[in-house]
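User: Hi! Is it possible to get a structure for several chains at once, not just one? Here's what I have:
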Amino acid sequence: MKLTGKQYWRSLDQLAQSPRFLEWLHREFPAGASEWTSGSSRRQMLKLMAASFGLAGLTACRRPEERILPASSASEEMAPGVPLYYATIFTLGGVATGLLVESHDGRPTKIEGNPNHPSSLGGTSPYAQASVLSLYDPARSQRVLRNGRASSWEEFEKFAAEHFDPQRIGYGRGLRFLSESYNSPSLDAIREHILRRFPQAQWAEHDPLAQEQAAAGARLAFKDNLIPVYQFENADVVVSLDADFLGMDAPTMAAIRQFAKRRQLLEPGGAMNRLYAIESRHTMTGAAADHRLRLAPGAIRLFAETLARELGLAIPSSGAEPTLSEQARKWAAVLARDLNRNRGRALVLAGPRQPAEVHALTHWINQTLEAAGRTVVYRKPPASPPSITLAQLAGQMAAGQVETLVILGGNPAFTAPADLDFPALFGKVNHTIRLGLEEDETSAACRWHLPQAHFLESWGDGRALDGTASIQQPLIQPLFGGRTASELLALISGYKDRRGYDIVRNYWFSRWPAAQAEKIWRKALHDGVIPDTRFPEAKPSVDVTSVTTALRSAPPPAPARSDRLEAAFFPGWACWDGRFANNGWLQEAPEPMTRLTWDNAALLSPATAAELGLRDGDVVEIASSAGRAQMPVLVQPGHADHCISLSVGYGRNRCGPVGRNVGFDAYRLRSAQSPWIAGGITLRKTGARHKLALTQDHHSMEGRAIVLEAALAEWRQNPGLFQAAGHHTHESLALYKERTYETGYQWAMSIDLNACVGCGACVLACQAENNIPIVGKQQVLRGREMHWIRVDRYFEGPPEAPRAVTQPVNCMQCEDAPCENVCPVAATTHSPEGLNDMVYNRCVGTRYCSNNCPYKVRRFNFLNFHKDLSETGKMVFNPDVTVRMRGVMEKCTYCVQRIEEKRIQANREGRRAIRDGEIVTACQQACPAEAIVFGNMNDPASRVAQLRNSSRRYQLLAELNTKPRTTYLARVRNLNPELG
Amino acid sequence: MNPIFPRSADKILRASLVAVLLALAVGISFATWLFHPNRTEVGYAPKQPVAYSHKLHAGDLGMDCRYCHYTVEFAAVAAPPPTEICMNCHKQVGVNNAALAPVRESYAKGTPIPWVRVHRLPDFVYFNHSAHVNAGVSCVTCHGRADQMVEVKQVEPLHMAWCLDCHRNPAPKIRPVELVTKLDWTPDRDPAEIGKEIIQAKGISPPTDCSGCHR
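Assistant: Yes, the chains can be modeled jointly so their relative placement is included. Here is the combined structure:
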């Protein structure tokens, strides 16, 4: 049996059995994790104790007087303590995602996906989950600045009234606008109004992660601006060319849900999709793939051409084909056969790093595969208003043609390609006005800084990728006096409406029949989508000559070598383009494949690292045509040779205290010419070392068969495979009287490893729902991270080309829980419904329970991590969950607050029976893959009971007889026999 | 060699050990007695910013508890009402009453009346009014005869053992839901029997495990 023979490893250290790793393995908590490490001396400590005893004595005399402050006038829907939900949208990378936001007494506290919205389908991204923390971030911009000094909106209004007189500024001859990418119809309307009022003005858009090459590829192929909307639920075979569509290359999570739907077989009978990933960095898409081929980013174009040729397309030869490895050429032939077998059910897509020619080529391939209308739908957006590029704007600024520059959002001084030297150009502009969420690098370079409103505190609208429009509805008044881009533009251009609400409402009312407008508006606010706003479908055909000419005129890059590496740029895991740098939840969430927190690193392959004499944490100086940057390296198993992967967005130096100087700035290496892939990169070892806070080696499971995996064919042959796989359960020899769980609700969870892609949305959702603290890099280095659910990542196979699996692990809620027996104060006990209750107010912090937990899912509050929270920072807490103090153990509770809420609701409604699916845990609700299912296993009709009957089901460490309530569904790979 | 300690040292040691243990036992018992919620909590009746009389409103005028505490049936808290609710009547009644000045001010300015909390549970307890009221636990069970109080006073200790007494044996405290706010209700037969019937009919099973109240 292959299953037990598989050797999963979690890091290169483990594979090498280094002493450092062995030490990790055998300690419950890493060295130093239980030491008092703050600066206070023993003497100070005694002083503090004396003082607090004294104070305690005083306060004990009288009970503290508490006030209750009811509203003077109550709103109809609101009752204290009863949460309300509102639909709104979250826009990232110019794509809106529909959300349902929970509001507690007027405070938005938790974000959920909107099942009605095409970008969400119910799931949420880690960024959407964490955005609520940014809302309350006290480091957000709170004041108007003029030349760096505090000013006010009134003063700016006075300035604007005078300055933005069309006649005075020559109808906008020297007026330029620079916005981040957005997708808001009402903002477009104001933009058109502005360009009418200032006909000489020009508008530039800059988004460092905009998928411009994909758009250019569609233009190249179709001679038209078309948006390909991929329909993964219809695809049997998917080929990804450097596209991390399940991870960082998609700002929304809808693809994950569609893709995962085709992998959740309960029994071996059904059909399953197959994914081939061709990529340089080992991404989440690579981990989810059935077959993965590592190729340097430049070589992927050659692979795409070879694949197209194998499919019979007439591709001109560039003469560079022999540089492609034999393995890659074999792959192209095999993939072509598989794609041909699945015409109409196949899909090829390219990632944003690939040049326009490759995107055009994929459209051509998809056309031959009869994909259009089936696995990809092309949609035609309305013509966008005229705009110039950032490079053009920089040229105008350098030439002194720009008099007034209005920057709307974004952070161009930080994110602009290094060779434009953008921050230096601000000096050549007389009036620079900047609307931003933070006082950042751009604010420092501008005359005026104006605070921007967060999306949860402002009115707006936005479109999903397919054009579906939604209203962005605020949940709270602007906390720090911010305004939106629309409001600022309305102010300076004398637009008919000034308030965000009026701008949005009147824009949409003008396109609806007056009699029904109010009704449509209310329904749109309630549902979170505006009906009939999708872009029309197009049936384009590929202009073959255009594609072949483009391929011929742009020769493929020379293959990379160790002295001339290739660099590929990726969105920063925690920061995206830098905007989330001050978000501690995101910074502390481990990057899915490297498990790195609070940092970025240059990723390279084990072979290249050995060639260059580098190991993890070595700081290197990287030189590109655009500039230089220092950065630590991190060896990633499965990375392609002779190339490095760089994450942008880190290394902010003007930022809130959380993100300041966290990581290293990779924008310094980016050029305007080739922002995504840069050739001719050299590395120089500086000799310095940098500590990387990896959560990788924590909580290892000692090489046991933790993740079960098999090929689809094996499972079909032997459906009982996973039951027989190595785990022989012992006869139960319990010390205590055995409990029975035959009556009432018995809560259980099922996690489908075949659906999970490891995106980490569950980790962030749990953190938001359960008031989990941020501990910081130093504490993560000591192994004190607090996440109640973690997503482990294991590698299997050779380090050059391993296969990866991801596995979310939360508290297993064991029926015979080892933690319960060892608690001296009964702070962790068993509920009759099978929950392993954790009672914080009883816990005295012996940590015996954690020591005895075989799954290492218990978390200890070594310090008072909530101590330094600001008043606004406290507003994010979920009032239904205790905020734990120092010295208390905590862990996953299956969201017991949600269970109790639904139980009380059921009782109140007099039905006394909780329906299946009514209780949704936070991780389950956020999961874009629907990999997590929770319910009552005593109800045979419940979803979780059905999943527990699947032949893929297994228990984690079943041989320990803990009888876990969380069970897993084993991973199945749909292997192509031709690739072995 | 002479022993360092005389023979009597043994006796002294034993006696002092006994004395220390005794002192500890007495000390702990005394502290428990002194700081027991029955002493520290029961009887707490702080002065309120408005001299509101429950006796006048709920007792003499016979207003239902839920007129003001309207969230009690669907929310965890039965909060003091918004000032608007007071003014529903006091726009007509007692318009010149000096005692009502803070209420009128709150209404006019939109500022809250800073009521002092009487019944306070620790932050780690998640008590839910709606769960109790809909099961048929009367207000009087925890709050006493509020309709006879001029100043609201805590009458029950509200400690965990007190809660559990009822959670383990709810029958005597359960009554028909429609009588929950009838504080002076006197059943014509054994209340435990009535309660038992209701419990059976509705399938009431109050939680006695930790997560029922602590999350």
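The radius of gyration of chain A is 28 Å. Chain A touches chain B through 38 residues (CB under 8 Å).

User: Great, thank you!
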